[in-house]
Amino acid sequence: MEEELDRSRAFAKDVKRIVVKVGTAVVTGKSGRLALGRLGALCEQLAELNSDGFEVILVSSGAVGLGRQMLRYRQLVNSSFADLQKPQSELDGKACAGVGQSRLMAYYETMFDQLDVTAAQILVNDSSFRDKDFRKQLNETVKAMLDLRVIPIFNENDAISTRRAPYQDSSGIFWDNDSLAALLALELKADLLILLSDVEGLYTGPPSDPDSKLIHTFIKEKHQDEITFGDKSRLGRGGMTAKVKAAVNAAYAGIPVIITSGYSAENIDKVLRGLRVGTLFHQDARLWAPVTDSNARDMAVAARESSRKLQALSSEDRKQILFSVADALEANEQMIRDENELDVAAAQEAGLEESLVARLVMTPAKIMSLAASVRKLADMEDPIGRVLKKTEVADGLVLEKTSSPLGVLLIVFESRPDALVQIASLAIRSGNGLLLKGGKEARRSNAILHKVITDAIPETVGGKLIGLVTSREEIPDLLKLDDVIDLVIPRGSNKLVSQIKNTTKIPVLGHADGICHVYIDKACNMDMAKRIVSDAKLDYPAACNAMETLLVHKDLEQNAVFNELLFALQSNGVTLYGGPRASAILNIPEARTLKHEYCSKSCTVEVVDDVYGAIEHIHGHGSAHTDCIVTEDPEVAELFLRQVDSAAVFHNASTRFSDGFRFGLGAEVGISTGRIHARGPVGVEGLLTTRWIMRGNGQVVDGDNGIAYTHQDIPIQA
Q: In the UniProt record, does the keyword Protease occur (predicted)?
């Protein structure tokens, strides 16, 4: 998912001159050859920055590794079979550097030429920086190049370095290209230094360790003694230890530094947009303390532990928790409303659409309704431990298939405070741990509702059963926890759902679009059609189950029904867009696409030949959410109900009924248009999985000898 703006990275907006250092592990692949695709993408990024007016200075490693690979190849080609049987001597590092540097620069020149950018090679030695005249000339030369939009490419001139072993010796003013990049950033007065590595940033331990966490902001006083480093760079002489040392030196001298992955083609752009990628080093980092790195894993683990305590309670005790939550909502009504009014006022001041502001509002009636729905959920049959199937496997060996909680749920939902209550109550009823991230517009409302609900949970379970994620910055870390979080349910925009699906291994349940259709058949009841169409579009236009496309049978083109339907919508402020046929008939603007979710007082209208045309249109342009037919012809209705492949299909009923509460599920965590696990409005049952319980009296398999399988179904007693 897309990273959120990080206020601590506000410096990015003032950046003009950038030093980018690319490590050997980024420049080359595992074989030692150039990683052409990765390096090409980097050059494209730098060329784009150059054209946008940024002053770009590149420090590139990789010459020694490339030279070593080339010389080994030549050595192999020119060796006899007898030579290959002898121990191979180590290649001279300086010779490797000389051979590799020309090959590396040739690639950069070729690539930048293709991008209409001029690059220049500058090789430096440690001893050169001891000369004031050299440093003055370096500044003048680089300034002249940058004024001409030339990208200087720096590297240490290892081939003639006086260092004893240029790939090992760490003495001198600089000792590798990380420290060279930091030195150049200071000497050339850069605004930002970006160190590109083969990992996402600095971790609390080796990145391969699943317990290691990405450190978003390095605070020397906090992290200096906490982190442990893995192995040094695979091919170069640096590694994370060298990068951190260089980053700290530059940052505490006033140059902000970001260590991030060079494997992502967009990371440099994200850094310059102030997004939270990689690890930030900044001289003012300590002023932002106390800085807490994402405690995503701790939060998820705590939710799982609390969920197990919840499952261990009796059915009556779990039921009582929900009654306590309902009572707490009513008892704290005024406090909830006070916080909610601040959210609403902020939303109005920000100019949010009326429909979005409306769903923020927590009226006394809505709070009462929420409390009632929680009590109704409590009174439903206990979903945990229900025997779904009972089988006699063999004499005296009984197997039961039972319902069981999924574990820990991560729900990302829109700015609707009432959704938090519904989701939390469903999690409690189903015995699941829960992590919640609501829309920022409802921040205060969500916080007070979370407090009211968790305070009502007994200490024997713990309030950590339900965790509230307060920043989008924590979501990427949570989405990596496929070993702790069992299901993600995103509620919101198509973009949100798609981003989450593309950035996690955790199963995702939800829908990306709510493109709901109402088809008016030629055999419709006119008054009924008007009521259903008006309700489906106008009852709550922003809802995912609102009508987005009205399909009308062609025989109604010249019929009063068509005109009355359109008048009912337009007179209530609905803007109409037509499909190819309807726009020509009605003289209304043609829709940009027939697959569009408006979430407002707008909808698409199209004319179809018959019910088959309606079904074809729905399958071609719908989202498999909820679709409806209005007709008095039972055969046509059954055809529609059988053949429309959507999560919910209605006959003579508004699409707005596609809702967990209205279905009698007590509430819903979302609506799924997928076909695995749960489909349609997801209530308690959608948050359950199954377990197998076997009871025997000493039976063993023993190669299936001496046991007679019966596999008889046993009636389940109510």
A: no
Q: What is the pTM of this model?
A: 0.57
CA–CA distance, 96 with 167 (Å, rounded to integer):
11
Question: Both tokens of residue 530?
Answer: 């008007």
pLDDT in tens, 80-134: 655 556 666 677 777 888 888 888 899 999 999 999 999 999 999 888 888 899 9
**Are 209 and 227 in contact, with CB atoms under 8 Å apart?**
no
Q: Residue 220 has what pLDDT?
A: 76
Q: Are 151 and 117 in contact (CB under 8 A)?
A: yes
Residues 6+ apart with CB under 8 A from 215: 201, 202, 203, 204, 223, 227, 279, 293
pLDDT of residue 169: 44
CA distance 407 to 389: 22
Question: Which pLDDT belongs to residue 232?
Answer: 45
Q: How many angstroms separate the Cα of 249 from the Cα of each of 169, 191, 193, 228, 528?
A: 19, 15, 11, 19, 74
Task: Say if residue 13 is exposed, middle or buried (CB neighbours under 10 Å; 0-12, 13-18, 19+).
Answer: exposed
Report whether pLDDT(710) > 80. yes
Counting DSSP H helices and E strands in the chain, the numbers are 24, 24
Q: Give residue 624's pLDDT band: very low, low, confident or very high (50, 70, 90).
A: very high
The alpha carbon torsion through 315, 316, 321, 324 (nearest 10 deg) reads 160
Rg (CA), the chain: 32
Among 228, 258, 263, 233, CA closest to 246? 258
Write down the pLDDT at residue 544: 87
Tens-digit pLDDT profile for residues 637-691: 999 999 999 999 999 999 999 988 888 887 778 788 877 778 888 888 888 999 9
Average pLDDT of 361-376? 94
Q: What is the largest CA-CA distance in the chain?
A: 97
How many Cβ atoms from other residues are within 10 Å of residue 647's Cβ?
21
The crossing angle, in degrees rounded to 10, of helices 132-147 and 177-187 is 80
| Per-residue H/E/C for 329-384 | HHHCHHHHHHHHHHHHHHHHHCCCCHHHHHCCCCCHHHHHHHHHHHHHHHHCCCCC
